[in-house]
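Table S2 (text version). Query chain:
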Amino acid sequence: MSGIDYSNAEFWAKAPEWAGAVVSAYSSDGDRFYFVEEFGGISRRQEVGSIDRGEIADMIIPGNVWRLVAERPQAWTGAGLPPVGTVCELRCKTGGWGIATVKYISPTVCAWLWSAQPEDVECCEEVHKMEFRPIRTPEQIAAEKKEADILRIWDLINISKAQAKALYDSGLRFMDDPGNG
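Corresponding structure-token output:
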């Protein structure tokens, strides 16, 4: 079991939904590894690799040697730098946003893999020249487009922003310039 990367998203994708950590339990047969809801106290557990549903285990009984191996990684919310393995949107300050997988990151440098067509491209840049954000949902993208369209109406027609929003909500749209593809 020591060869398993417990920080890997693929490992946790196979874990039970309720599992919050992996622990090892020492026994005369050697270490056994379990998914647990939480480390310490009384928690549901399921042996790693087992398809059996979890059982209740008391991790505070004297004589049992429980060791925390790893906690389930929490999703990156956009605060701070994204952890290695995060799929996010990023851009260098002079370019556009793109979807990438972070391969290495430190306070000074980031290496990532662009999810580009026809093949992925590896890149590296100084962190202070970059911006990161979680991948936006279709609803977020639609809301941003709506706001941009309302601002365009407001900018082109000499009306209040509330009136521009009312025009948008009533169906006013601009035809895209056919010359822009």
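Notes on Table S2: The chain has three domains: 9-71, 87-133, 138-180. The first strand starts at residue 21 and ends at 27.
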